[in-house]
Amino acid sequence: QIRNSGTNAGTAWARLKIFDGAGSLTAIDSVQFTLVAGDNTTIFKKMFFAIDSGYVVAEILNCSPLESNLLNNTDTLPFSTVAKMKASLIVSNLDMKAGAPQQLPGWIGGKILLGDFDLTVNGNIVNVDTSHFVITNGTGRLTIINSNTQNVYPVGPSMFKTNFVKISNAGTPDNYTVRVQPYLLRNGNAGDTIKTGTLNRTWLIEEQTPGGSNATVEFFWNTSDELPGFDRNASRAAHFTSSWQLGNLGAALQDSIGRYSRSQAGYNSFSPFTVTSEFGGLPLSLLSFTAIPKQDDVLLNWITDNEVNTSHFDIEFSNDGSNFNKVGLVKAANTSGKHQYAFVHKSPVGSIVYYRLKQSDNDGKFTYSPIIKVSRKIHQELVLYPNPSSQFIELKNISTSEISDLSVLSSEGKLVLALKATNQQRYDISRLKNGVYFLQVIQKDRTTQTIPFIKN
Fold first, then answer.
1. Could you say which DSSP state residue 380 is in?
2. Contact present, 277 and 235 (Cβ < 8 Å)
3. Band of the pLDDT at 280, cuts 50, 70, 90?
4. Over the stretch 229-276, which tens digit does the pLDDT of each residue have?
């Protein structure tokens, strides 16, 4: 801005000189202006130069009449094509080539580096391309607020990587927040890093008002974003809720500048997204894994979802929770949808046992499930004494509360005496004839033990 502080009107030239960071002059141009006494004006000049940062020197010269003060006619302003956010910012419309001089002084258009700050655009973002976009290099997010049914979010994870996303909403009007990160985690926001069969990109999308959306989302990527084993001709979007939900399989599209894209319709909830192959690196989701004692055995059940490239499950057992041994194998269904599995571990050793699943893929890779712990009662061998006996018998190694049924059988297996369990576990057999009998003990867990004894 230029101001005439004198008492006379005047005409002059404003010369603009562009210097790079090393101080070398790279461009120069001038603008003529006229100002009445006490007035001010803002001059504009579009200039083209091939540097990303430097400074501009503005000089006032060739004044008519001559200036009375020659000490205030020069100013310097640094500039850059990369704006580094220092606080969260709200702007009304954003032209990525024209800059935002009021909100981001010195930024002449190009890229905005969010860091950990949010950028909200009330309106539209225009003039976006691979040199003009928003860099989500931290936790900062881009939000666009307008009434459009379709918006392109020009985001990328770093200075020279773009991964735009287009959201078209046919449902209840809503606004969306987007950032993209240059890696993919097994469980969307957590877990190990996926290194094969997918893109190394995660788009984190949130809606302003949950529910009501009916969105088609298109994801854009470059060849360098594809991990080993990814097949763009058999690819699909993937959306993580409690597990990875896979979209329709198909070939990626390619635009005029060489970017690839895949889209999926029907989204009404939002969370991490990526693009994967038909046999991509996204893991199956283990929805549940339980172990239940069944008499002397343990019944294991588990439910999976999204089995892609899954070969089998090894069932592993441990008495200490650290050293595991394989006790069985169950083949995987290896198809989409939910699957239920069961395995019975016969007569494991120990009152406390641990189990885990080793899920193996067809390519040899494997992951372990969480470890589950089972406390089980070990049925001790019952002891009957004295044996032989003429009047009373007693039981050891069992409590009354564990007994469901107690009876004396003849040597032919016929019931001859029904007994009622007592706390003392002492039973009168004096009425029995001399001979060989069997005491049958049925426990409440349906375990049955039969003990022979002699009445004399």
1. P
2. yes
3. low
4. 889 998 999 999 877 888 888 999 999 999 999 999 999 999 899 999
Tell me the sheet residues that pair with 365. Answer: none
Identify which of 181, 196, 282, 286 has the alpha carbon closest to the alpha carbon of residue 236.
282
Show the tokens assigned to 76. Answer: 């310097």
List Cα–Cα distances, 352 to 346, 358, 373, 378, 415, in angstroms: 15, 20, 7, 10, 37
| Torsion sign (Cα): 288, 245, 341, 230 | negative
Q: How far is CA 171 from the centre of its chain?
A: 25
Report pLDDT digits (tens) over 68-107.
777 778 888 888 999 999 999 999 999 999 999 889 988 9
**Residue 172: which of 212, 201, 228, 116 has the closest Cα?**
212
128-153 confidence digits (pLDDT tens): 999 999 999 999 999 999 999 999 99
DSSP string, 310-333: EEEEEEEEESSSSS-EEEEEEE--
Cis amide leading into 228 (omega within 30): no
How would you label 303-322 residue by residue, b for 16+ Cβ within 10 Å and e otherwise? ebbbbbbbbebbbbbbeeee
Whether 225 shows a pLDDT value over 80: the answer reads yes
Q: Which two tokens stand for residue 234?
A: 């058999």
Lookup: tokens for 127: 């003039």
DSSP secondary structure of 20-80: ETTS-EEEEEEEEEEE-TT-EE--------S-SEEEEEEEEEEEES--S--SSSEEEEEEE
- The rounded distance, in Å, linking the Cα atoms of 190 and 201 is 14
Q: Which residues contact 410 (CB under 8 A, 6 or more apart)?
A: 416, 435, 437, 438
